[in-house]
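so the lab meeting is tmrw and i was supposed to have these ready like two days ago... anyway. pasting both below. for each one the top line is the aa sequence and the line under it is the structure tokens. i havent really looked at them closely yet so no promises
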Amino acid sequence: MAAKKASKKKSKKASVSEDDSKKLLKMSKQALERMSESRFKKDLEKMTVPEVQRFMELRTLTPGQSKVAKAIMIEENNKRNAELDAKEAEKEAAKKKSAKPRRKAKKQGPPFWRGFTDWFSSFHSGTLIKRRTRDELDEAPRIPRGPNLGLRGRVPVEFQVSICEQVFGEGYILPGGATYAKSIAKTLMLTEGIKGLDLSAGIGGLQQALHDKSGLFLSLMESKAEVVAIAKTRMAELPEPERRDILAYDPVTLNLGSQKYDWMIAREMMFTVADKAGFINKLQMSMFSGGQLIFTDLILDDDANMDSEAFAQWRESEKPPLYCLTVSQYRALLEEVDMEVLDFEDDTTEYAENIRQAWAKFVTTIQGQSVDEAFQQHVLHEAEYWHSRLRAFESGELKLMRIRATRKSLKTDEPEDSPGQPEQEVAED
């Protein structure tokens, strides 16, 4: 009986929402402008978040009405996220309670791992990142080089993915794992009907985390075709594989169409794009008005010395060419492409500590393992890659910034590519 009442109540609420939605949509422009904010708010609160969002896109609202609508959307989204976080916390607590205690890792292991552990501990003994002087960086220990140790691109992608997953967590090939990935998405709408795009999908870690939390499926894209091939194989084995497709793309030729997405996420890839203004314009053209773009990127300090030894080592570890902007140039670029910057946060310390802790944990778990020489060299190579990035952070030349910006207004034509601020191509000497 109680179930029937609940069902009727739910049906009645849905009917009311539909009626109010149609009533406001059909209301004349003059009647809508004359409506008091209190009455407008009362009718709007009966609608779902997606209905409110679509209503805002279809109708021209007064500044006061726009403010009310946005406030309702934020409040409802915060409530839903709080409920989802609480459920997720309950699941994690249940898992920990039922999990069997892990066996402690062996303190001793094969000579290779003991040497690798000694090297890691000697350089990464600190807990927080600090700006090191040039003398301190020059005196810091170097990772022991082995045969065939050079650019990261020489390591087969399947080994990169395998090692990074062991270091950063299952499903993730970038620092921070699920915790950092979800923190990036915490301000985004995660309700049914919302269309989100992950431009740095990797092997699908964020997609899985958000789906577990809210049931949402994202559109997935990744610029590395080899990683896409691995991700496709994995996703084919998951439930509803037809909703988990991932596409490879080239930022230069990317064409997403017009007004398709509510928000987008991209991680640590903009510094490889030469025409950032043109690329960002493509992204915002494919978003609804008010859509959000959240991305993290490697950015130069305004006083960066690109001739420093630490910066040169980082440059060598990446695949050139690189196109880096300073903090000031990035701010000017976003203003030029008419995006409203909501957040411009320096995540360098958190990001660097994520790298440190993840590798420290990995080091303790591999000490007792015995693996072939090829895998040892791949691990050394991957460690050198992240070690070089850490040294660049510690020199103060490089930063990891998290930027959240929103599309200000709809435009009928895609803007022509603009030279913007002068980008500094980081070519090899």
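ok protien two:
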Amino acid sequence: MSRAFPFSMPRLDSLETFPGGWHSPRPFAWAGLLCLVLYSLLRLPLPDVGELAGTVLALLGLGWLLRNGAGIRNSLPVWLLLAAILVQLISWTLGTRNHPEWMTDHPKLDRLAKHFLFLGIAWWLGGSTRNTFIILGLGLLGLLLITLGTNSAWQDWMRGFLGHRVDFGIHNAQHTSLFFGAGLVGLVVFAKRVLTLKKWWWLGTGLWLAALLVVLSGVAVTQTRATWFALVVALPVMLLIWMGVLHRQGRLRLANRAIIVTLVAIALVLMSAGTLFQDTVAKRLNDEQQIIDIVIEGDFRNVPYSSIGNRVLSWAAAAEWIAERPIVGWGAEGRSLVMKHTDWLPEPSKAYGHLHNSLLELIVSYGVLGLGVFVALAVWVARGTWLAWRAGVMPDDVALFGVGFFVFWCIVNMFESFLFFWSGVYLYNLVMGGLVTHIWRWQWLQRYPMKDPM
């Protein structure tokens, strides 16, 4: 097996000599891995290239999964992909009968199907932890390229340090903050791997600290309160879980050095960032206090227009539309219908065209049927992560990253519809691919205990 390429290739033995083989013919394997690299690295700095690579890797991966993935091709996510397509067809069919003037000419099946691109990613990762770290690292590198690699990016940094809210050209500041926040979660969780390196530890530690400083600064200059809140919750949750697992395994004392170094480094950077951005953070947190007071009183329709006010208004409008069609929703254009055809919404709110909440947007569009698909997927991934970790197939830090990212992801999606923007779909699929490939490897070993695909 060639080692010229950094990925650990999936088994490439012939189907006859390796029954049920998690493999693809070598040309397809190399093509799939190349597309995976391009998708992971270039989806942010070169969106068109990254999008095309993602489409190719998904189609190739799904095709070979269905052909050669004995033991994993019948796993629940594959069936949920089919369910997602059926839900969209049902919603569109019923919508064309009841309100055809508001329906598209054809069902937009990609609206939910694109959330299953991770099936192709998980296939090409081949169950490898090493490969998973590589694609996550490439994703972080792509973020650093777009936020550090151009003159306009440096101008954004200068404006950000002066107190302005910046976005580095990634849709808007909330989406950029999403990536910085996810990067911070990953850097914290995987810190031990870097800080305990035996060779080149000084280089790894230096790069880790530099990346940590960049993502923390990015979280500050993008000035997104949802990200701040999500991190304030996710990071302590991860720390408590980590300490609990180490204590239960009797390894807490042995890990003290790595824990202390990690916490001290993060604390120093946090204090530096807090000092630098103290006024900016305080202003963002205090700006909406009046709105919060009105919401607490329950007077939703009289909430004045503002960042939080706009969200509250769109959520209240969505609730009314959900009540009318709770089972199948209003179809692919449901979010636009809510914002355009709710009479009492102020004009500035109508201009947004989305609901600032992924859960509400999902239910408005596809009802509880659509919600059921994603709840089932979340339960399957959570259970699979637990079982793969218990079996020793999924490393401790990968499982912890899955938990931390889930907490972070759920919170930020309460305040923005990331699940229905390309930025959120990309990040979601990248992380899901890494988790699912380990779950599949565990399932594989249940069926072929002597034939580890790695």
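from a quick look at the 2nd one: Residues 10 and 454 are 7 Å apart (CA to CA). The chain is about 70% helix and 0% strand. will dig more after coffe
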